[in-house]
Amino acid sequence: MIDNCLFMDFQFTEEQLMIRNAARDFARTECLPGVIERDEKMQFPREQIEKLAELGFMGMMVSPEYGGAGLDTASYVLAMEEISKIDASVSVCMSVNNSLVCYGIEAYGTEEQKRKYLTPLAQGKKDGELYIGAFLLSEPEAGSDATSQRTIAEDVGDYYLLNGTKNWITNGNSASVYLVMAQTDAAVGSKGIDVFIVEKSWPGVVVSGKENKMGIRASDTHTILFNDVKVPKENRIGAHGFGFTFAMKTLAGGRIGIASQALGIASGAYELAKEYAKTRKAFGTEIMNHQAIAFKLADMATRVEASRMLCLKAAWDKDNHQDYTLSSSMAKVFASETAMWTSTEAVQIHGGYGYVKEYHVERLMRDAKITQIYEGTSEVQRIVISRTILK
């Protein structure tokens, strides 16, 4: 793994810089206005997601053959960081559609599945309406232990009959397409899990009320129920029993997206704290001149930069067809813990002002916490890392 670093180019291409700048401009002009209100009201950022789709950011890494932008993962990391600095609720919708749904179908779907589902997902629209996806793995009894699937897909000849419950689903109500992991043969455990493309509009699909969350409050998180949903045979992805492998391989890429989101939250909090420290005065001088604050900012800058390097390393591994399981887990655990620490320190630097909404850092602190939990907790990442380095 370390040897691979010798081949990394730390100079961004002109195209990558264009993508970063476009994402930065979008975040400041389209996401920042109303971000506090959307957070308070748990209002899904539909307008922002639709405009992201117009920019090609909902299918960034998908081949142009299927309506995507055909960009590399490093460009995706740069875009995710910039948008996450301002609104993590927008960036998580973008991450799920890119890293999990589009990637999963493009990497493992049939040509027919790609034409029917991937193309509109990559474009973020179909017939003029928003068209995004969701990834349905977690259940009431299956969080970190993803093998304990209780959702059942029964083979009844012409189709599968899907029954069960999935929870904590990002884009749960706004998605048109779900990738659903379900047990088809409980006798063989994880080897009996399959993955299906399910349309939200099908009879028997029920979306529960929106979860009232601590952070990323504008993203729509729901429990999804399936009651005798008929799933056509051609909507299974891969061979029988491929579902668990599909989930693990797809989540490895998803962790790059969430690591980049965490990086953005951390860098956003750092930038706000730095600017505040330059103007806020205490004891006759700007607080940046007090060593206690200066050292906090030094540590924040260092951890943010280290997180950025880990995210770009994971992106490099993915783009160069290396095994990125280890690097994506390292990036996610370090960046997510950096986001939590940095945003907390940003609140501390702001003092009482950091505790009120208009200064934004309290929202970043609330948003940071989930990056340590979803798409694999920090504890799970350490399991992945330790098993890899010790085997």
Automatic annotation (TrEMBL):
Entry's family note: Belongs to the acyl-CoA dehydrogenase family.
Keyword Oxidoreductase: yes
Any Pfam family hit: Acyl-CoA_dh_1
Cofactors that this protein relies on: FAD
UniProt entry tagged with the keyword Oxidoreductase: yes
EC annotation from Swiss-Prot or TrEMBL: 1.3.8.10
Molecular function terms from GO: acyl-CoA dehydrogenase activity; flavin adenine dinucleotide binding
Annotated ranges, domain Acyl-CoA dehydrogenase/oxidase N-terminal: 13-125
InterPro entries tied to this protein: Acyl-CoA_DH_CS (IPR006089), Acyl-CoA_Oxase/DH_mid-dom (IPR006091), Acyl-CoA_Oxase/DH_mid-dom_sf (IPR046373), AcylCo_DH-like_C (IPR036250), AcylCo_DH/oxidase_C (IPR009075), AcylCoA_DH/ox_N (IPR013786), AcylCoA_DH/ox_N_sf (IPR037069), AcylCoA_DH/oxidase_NM_dom_sf (IPR009100)
PROSITE patterns found in the cross-reference section: ACYL_COA_DH_2
Domain Acyl-CoA dehydrogenase/oxidase C-terminal: residue ranges: 243-389
Domain (Acyl-CoA oxidase/dehydrogenase middle): residue spans on this chain: 134-229
Keywords: FAD, Flavoprotein, Oxidoreductase
Class of enzymatic activity (EC top level): oxidoreductase
Provenance organism: Cnuella takakiae
Protein name: Cyclohex-1-ene-1-carbonyl-CoA dehydrogenase
